[in-house]
Write a structure and sequence with these properties.
By secondary structure, the protein is α/β, with parallel strands linked by helices. It is built from nine helices and seven strands, in the order αββαβααβαβααβαβα. The relative contact order is 0.15.
Length: 232
């Protein structure tokens, strides 16, 4: 079941983080002091025509099961209290089963005035993109590209030529900004230009999430052919 897989993602992520010994990527961030900068200090930023109070946001995490709904609730509360934007996890589970809307919609309920992005994959139809936006009352749409995951999955896609045209259709068919994020592969310098040509507000890269691939392998060994790569 998709819900089981989503819970596996969380379990493996926790185990993976436990092995890091308390390290997180903020440990790699440092600021260079300049006493005579001669400028006002502001954390506000503009990205793809979107104004944010801070140059960071809570990225797509999870959703699709009661347990992940609790995580999304807490993340939405954190976003509400800090004022940072937030993205839902992939909403493919909701497209497959509308009864699992709650683990996603709780984010808007807890963060009624915040900036929320609905996350979908590049194979989603325009109608499903609109469903995601409507459910979340989303301020923007985030499309994830997961070529590497599709490639390693036995039943995954091997042809990605339709992704660009589909993104263009989604951009033309929705009334919110569209952001493209790349999963697992390092974005090349030419990629932002390609994203812009498809009419998107912006593009970014997401670091690999090993727990998702691990979850997939376990479900393949368990013999669950009814689940597809889009469920990840």
């Amino acid at each position: 079941m998709i819900a089981d897989r989503k819970d596996d993602h969380v379990r493996f992520a926790v185990e993976q983080h436990r092995d890091l010994g308390g390290y997180n990527q903020f440990d790699d961030v440092s600021f260079v002091h300049h006493a005579l900068a001669g400028a006002e200090v502001s954390l506000a930023t503009r990205f793809g025509g979107i104004d944010w109070r801070f140059p960071l946001y809570i990225d797509a995490m999870t959703g699709g099961s009661p347990r992940t709904g609790l995580i999304n609730r807490d993340l939405a509360i954190a976003a509400r209290e800090t004022g940072v934007p937030i993205a839902t996890g992939s909403m493919s589970a909701y497209f497959a089963d509308a009864s699992v809307a709650e683990p996603f919609s709780v984010m808007r309920r807890e963060n009624p005035d915040g900036f929320i992005m609905a996350n979908i994959n590049a194979t989603a139809s325009v109608d499903n993109a609109r469903r995601a936006i409507d459910l979340m009352r989303a301020d923007a749409l985030q499309i994830h590209l997961n070529t590497i995951q599709e490639t390693v999955m036995p039943e995954g896609d091997r042809s990605f030529a339709s992704w660009g045209p589909r993104i263009e259709q989604i951009v033309a068919g929705v009334d919110v900004p569209v952001i493209v994020m790349e999963v697992a592969l390092r974005a090349q310098p030419r990629n932002p230009g390609a994203v812009a040509r498809h009419g998107c507000a912006g593009g970014r890269r997401l670091r690999p999430r090993r727990h998702e691939l691990r979850a997939y392998r376990e479900h393949v060994r368990a013999g669950r052919p009814d689940e597809t790569p889009d469920d990840y």
